[in-house]
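Protocol step 4 of 6: structure prediction from sequence.
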Amino acid sequence: MKKAFLALATAMCLPAMAVNASNITPYVVGGDPVTDISTQSWMASLRIVSMDNAHNCGASVIADNWLVTAAHCVVTPGSNGKYMVIPPQHLNVAVGSATIDLSDVAHLYSVSHVVVHPDYMPDGDFEQDYNGDIIVNKTGLYSDIALLRVHRSFPADSVTPITLASPEIANEIDTRLAAEWDAANRVKNTSVSGWGAVDPGASEAPNTLQQAELTFLPIADCFQLIEQGNSIHGIIESPFDLTKICSISPEIRDDITIVEPDPELDEDGNPVEQDPVYTGDYGADSCKGDSGGPLRAQDANGNWVQIGIVSGGVVGTPTCGSVSRPSFYTRVGTYYDWVQKSIANVPGSAVVEPDFIADDRTDMCNPNSSGVSHTNCDFRENSSSGGTIGAGLLSLFALGWLRRKQK
């Protein structure tokens, strides 16, 4: 009932945006290359092993063996259409290089544990009450945060963990940056990093890490821009939502490549070098492929801390870089205590699933079943620690990556 009604609500009540995770674009446009990785040594690239270690998302090193990323980077539909957590043996992270190309295996770290926040919900949780009204239990990409543990520790002499904003620091930054907001005179007060697409159409991926300066958008203003006129608040729950924060392009840039000219050939059939086209009212933004990466701001003492995790943006044109549509991020301060508790010990299981997946499995398995039967709850619970991925599942992994890279 919830799933069917969600599809109807998306089509009929939310024409300007969508609440499905597949339609909330996990989007750095208008940024500058980071050539010295030592200035951002905590930056990591999450890779899919089965796709020749292709870049999938960003992540941040937060401790000797731990990183934080977006939950939607590691939760994907399985071959049966139901969501599953990508097993750790199919994930790597690259740390210590500004380029996306791997030049040294020392930069590559294999993942040993994947821990997804228990409350993560990709498509949101919606239901209809007795009066026919829609109740939003959880918005789309709710609690979009996950942790990755790697087998070997990061070298202390070259990798410095990023500082996460505690609840107190997050509150102070929210209040201070909100006071700086002026729609007509936008202050560059946040910074996002990643290897995501560098054009508003989200089609061109860079080889070098990019960093862009953005403007912090108060959650109440973000709520107005995203949810105004919508009977269902599917992304930002209210003007007081503490699970997400938002940013917006600080200015219109005239140096962003919008369209590549049609290729021309000389008389010998060789391509003729042409200047790219720069046009349109676009600005800096996080973009596809940046998901899971950090949004940073300075605290009261001038220290840079991570305040957000790249999560998504509202569907529309341009895909990225709109000066009127914000991007949203998981608010780190809200989940700080959960992170600290989770990384204090090695998890007992290689995969810690969000509740919605675990609940779905409980509905499917039989506690009285034993052996290797697919209905055996214990067998299903432990099956994620080994084995191989079938061809159908591999294609789904590829589809998910292409969606982030090309859609």
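Step 5 (inspection) to follow. The chain has seven helices and 20 strands.
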